[in-house]
UniProtKB/TrEMBL annotation:
Transmembrane segments: none
Domain HTH deoR-type, chain residue ranges per copy: 3-58
Keyword annotations: DNA-binding, Transcription, Transcription regulation
UniProt-recorded name of the protein: DeoR family transcripitonal regulator
Start and end residues of each stretch annotated as Disordered: 55-75
Molecular function terms, GO-annotated: DNA binding; DNA-binding transcription factor activity
Species whose genome carries this gene: Novosphingobium lindaniclasticum LE124
Presence of keyword Ligase: no
Length: 258
């Protein structure tokens, strides 16, 4: 693919939402990471984009107008979907925690389900979810940390603008996160703002633990957060398709069935 064509596709991707991740560009373009970085440098020097942590965004004056919100199903609707499976996944994920350690929990209806099982472990938890904060506050021994940023009401999470580092100085052995979909291309979310936030969490974690019910393996559209090779453990339910389970094990991903 010629550089002119790559640059056109990059600009289309950025213009759609105001931000595009490196992972999404690698999946879309037939080019090496080094080539993509050179393309982004040229576009930045021409004033078309700004390179930021995890990807590229539009210059401030070119951001698309519209109401501030996130793509995807609102939290209050999603929380009722596949709830028994999510509760079992939450219980199984909590068993992976050790008393007194620090962990990160990304906002989501599945990750929320592990909170009741953390009581009594005296843990430190960094989360961007106000639902998770509310669930953990009654636990006297649990210390809760939040990043700074904007509250997105439909998901009740706190997210910083792309490229802005709002995270506390925090490093954790484990990151627990959800996803909109999981497929051969990798882990996906429905909004690029969520992609940038999850990449910031991943940069601070030693182990990435994905919590998804089996319905997430039957859909494979969205913005790519990471490849399957970047996931250490997936906690799911017995409904995971066998073909997907075999592929994950071949990649060295540990499967935990809740």
């Amino acid at each position: 693919m010629h550089s002119t064509e790559r640059e056109r596709l990059i600009l289309e991707s950025v213009a759609a939402t105001g931000f595009v991740s490196y992972r999404s560009l690698e999946a879309r373009l037939d080019a090496s990471p080094a080539t993509i970085r050179r393309d982004l440098t040229r576009l930045e020097e021409a004033g078309h984009i700004l390179r930021v942590h995890g990807g590229a965004k539009l210059p401030e004056d070119d951001k698309p107008e519209g109401p501030e919100g996130l793509a995807g199903t609102p939290f209050e609707q999603s929380i009722t979907q596949n709830l028994p499976a999510k509760q079992a996944i939450g219980r199984a994920a909590a068993r992976l925690c050790r008393p007194g350690e620090g962990i990160m929990i990304d906002g989501g209806t599945t990750t929320l389900q592990m909170c009741p099982y953390l009581d009594g472990l005296d843990m430190q938890v960094l989360t961007n979810s106000l639902h998770i904060v509310h669930a953990l506050l009654p636990q006297v021994g649990t210390r809760v940390l939040l990043p700074s940023g904007t509250v997105f009401r439909e998901q009740n999470i706190v997210l910083a603008p792309a490229g802005e580092d709002s995270m506390p100085r925090f490093h954790a052995p484990k990151l627990f996160m959800g996803a909109a979909a999981v497929g051969p291309q990798g882990v996906m979310q429905q909004d690029v703002i969520l992609v940038a936030a999850e990449r910031r969490f991943m940069d601070r974690a030693e182990e990435v633990i994905l919590m998804v019910d089996s319905s997430k393996f039957r859909s494979s559209s969205g913005a790519i957060v990471c490849g399957l090779d970047e996931v250490d453990t997936i906690v799911t339910d017995p409904g995971i398709p066998q073909e997907m389970a075999d592929q994950l094990r071949d990649l060295g991903v540990k499967l935990v069935i809740g």
